Amino acid sequence: MGSLPPSLDLPSPPPKNPQHERVSETTLFNLFKAQQGHLNYFFQNLDLSQALSFTETLVNSRGTIFFSGVGKSGFVANKISQTLVSLGIRSAFLSPLDALHGDIGALSAADILVLFSKSGSTEELLRLIPCARAKGVYLISVTSVPNNALANACDMNVHLPLERELCPFDLAPVTSTAIQMVFGDTVAIALMGARNLTKDQYAANHPAGRIGKSLIFKVKDVMKKQDELPVCKEGDLIMEQLVELTRKGCGCLLVIDEEYHLLGTFTDGDLRRTLKASGEAIFKLTVGEMCNRKPRTIGPDAMAVEAMQKMESPPSAVQFLPVIDRQNTLIGIVTLHGLVSAGL
User: Which one of 51, 73, 109, 253 has the lowest number of neighbouring Cβ atoms within 10 Å?
Assistant: First the structure.
């Protein structure tokens, strides 16, 4: 066999580290335990009165809640702001550098500006303070080093107790950013509760994601109906309905009476089992003789995620659910493939 042309040459695996560096299980376990201890220190020493004052200030905000920070603290500030936005709370991230070059125009006297900084000595944030104060903004610092310049310059400070960074040099911001995230996201959920945010309101802010779809979509939004339904009568011969069984792509036949009441279902699996058991006699069998008279069903106003759960429930999973109204009239069918295609 000849060699591959140059354009199809496969890349060689990366060379092994000659020093054979590795992390032992014990080392990793000890690091997780140490980080757990540092986080426990934060929880045990957090001043809840400060946290409550901070939370109530945000709850009572009538403007936009801006968050700012530099470096890793900036990433955290941005994420917390996005969390609030997803909860329907007016919030935005303000880059301290961009703010000093025009973006500070977004601030007004009704707004709150929350500044995240471990040290409280971040130069970019300190330069931002007088400019933001000139706009009448209420300033809050969230810091970990006591008696810092940023806290002294703001209207409110929240101290996040930091025992030390997990970094062996006590330098890389890994524990400090972890407690910033924990603090900010916990406050966000407190705001969610204070504003009595409902599932429907939350879902409305996530219409394209799986979260929103699972809370918004009902069975009637994702079911097949009318001409898409693979229907037949109980007196129809099985062999005469093979085209209908395969053409509609549902993997089943829905057996109905003259009034469109659901009588049962006949599946691809039922066809195979009947053929194996009956042989040539299958040519004389009707759908009604072999159908399942007690299929799982669901109503049109049930949540689509409930339909998926019902399909997957014991004793065995199914691939579809007939959709019926209160009079047992067939109005649709929802399939597992259709739910997955809808993003659920």
Answer: 109
